[in-house]
Design goal:
The protein contains 3 helices and 2 strands; from the N terminus they run ββααα. It has 113 residues and is of the alpha+beta class. A hairpin with a 2-residue loop joins β1 and β2.
Length: 113
């Protein structure tokens, strides 16, 4: 495993990555640095944690916009609804499995008697 030191907002961070991924990691750090510089140009200096949080929010917003452009209309909400339906189905399946286990236990007890 390789270790790379990246600089973000004047601070050095040692970050581990897979061998050969060092340039990619440096590129990602540069992306974060660009957003921090953008935030600083808009609103002045803030605390380190606030700058990093705002940079993360900017990147999340950009990812959201990219996903909206790439996915057909309504797909994102359909995926969210699908995940909710899947969770409900999993809960119901667990309930049915529990009931089946209980029924089998009752049947086994009756057979012994």
């Amino acid at each position: 495993m390789a270790q790379v030191t990246v600089r973000i907002n004047g601070y050095a961070y040692a970050v581990g990555c897979e061998d050969g991924q060092e340039p990619h990691l440096q590129s990602m750090a540069a992306q974060v640095e660009r957003r921090i510089e953008r935030i600083k140009s808009i609103g002045g200096q803030s605390g380190e944690a606030r700058l990093l949080a705002l940079a993360a929010l900017l990147m999340a917003d950009e990812l959201h916009d990219l996903a909206a452009e790439k996915l057909p209309s309504g797909t994102a909400s359909a995926l969210a609804e699908g995940e909710q339906a899947r969770t409900l189905m999993m809960q119901r399946a667990q309930l049915v499995a529990g009931l089946a286990d209980r029924a089998e236990a009752i049947a086994a007890a009756l057979e012994r008697d």
